[in-house]
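Subgroup meeting minutes
Present: P.N., E.W., G.H.
Scribe: E.W.

1. P.N. recapped why we're keeping a running log of single-chain structure predictions: easier to compare across weeks, and new members can see raw inputs and outputs side by side.
2. G.H. added today's entry (426 aa).
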Amino acid sequence: MIWDATFQFVLIGALLIGATSGTLGAFAVLRRRSLLGDALAHAALPGVALAFLWTQSKALPILLLGATVSGVIGVLVIEVIVNYTRIKADAALGIVLSVFFGIGIVLLTHIQQSAVGNQSGLDKFLFGQAASIVRADLYVMCLVSALVLIAVCIFYKEFKGLIFDAEFLAALGFSPRRVDLLLMGLIVLSVMVGLQAVGVILIAAMLITPAAAARFWTDRLHVMVIASGILGALCGALGVGISALAPRIPTGPVMVLVATGAFLASALIAPKRGVLARWARRRANARRENGQHFLRAHTARQDGQGDAVALTDIAAELQLPRARVHRLAKRLSRDGCVAIHNGACSLTEQGQKEAEFVVKSHRLWEYYLVYRSILERDHVDRPADEAEHILTPEMIEQLETLLANENIDIDIHKTGSGYRRTGDDG
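Output recorded in log:
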């Protein structure tokens, strides 16, 4: 039966690992310490081996204590390297990761070749073995997870200040270095919680991936922290369920794969930062800009307000294929900006207002660039062409107020409408 005691222990352990790692992962990602979890996990391996050699015990509290001490030493070594040498943080993380992991592998090899090697089973800390979690292990994991989450609640404001404005945090009387050490210490504990189930190799993924996925959905820190913790817990639980249904599939890697799937889904469908949302915004912006170029070109070609202009003339003005211009005209007709008849189009009242606003935006921005001596008159068209699509009525009003009392010729290019084809800066 799948819902036995072992499954329940593993499920609760996975929930604790996901929630703890996800919560602290939000701070690690925003603090740009994403590789810290990986370095600490590798740095913990020598502590596990030395704890076993010292006590000859496989009890999880003893092994986690050794791993924690070793991880804290790794943190201190990273701090010493960064603060007292010219080596950057990423290089320091790489040094600690490789050196400590190498020491751990040497110690594990020594243990396996010793008389008690067959009984050690310490290799599970490399790749994880969630099925080995027992009730006593679960108690330890619950205790450590509770300490981590309580500490996050207590020091949330300090962590927030450390991430976004360390100088302001220092002005309030807090030591940014101590707060940073506290955060790294909590990350050490979080890594220790997941070592047994996920392993040294993959635990960093559970720290980083849920937080990176949550970042796509929100701009607010507390929402990201909560969402990352919940997402991590769900990924852990779902990974356990899939592993239980598919025999001989390790739980830790499945948890990581589920978290990776959540990240990919978030990157794709998140409403603001997702790939689809960004593509939709770019497409909408391109459609709006093309429509405004059409209206401005129509204004440049028409003899009087309300006169019809042939689509071939607009295509020549825009230097675009007639088929594309025809599609633009159809879309603008659906939007109520133009009326099409016999291969020509005329602006509606709505289209005329939009065209006048676009031309005004273009002309005022050119005038501003020349007035402020930012660019010469023969170099302002292209910047104005880019700016005209983002100027708002409020910004236009400010420009008009700023330039109201100046006597510079406002018709810079002597074109009347202010429209010129792309690249025509003469």
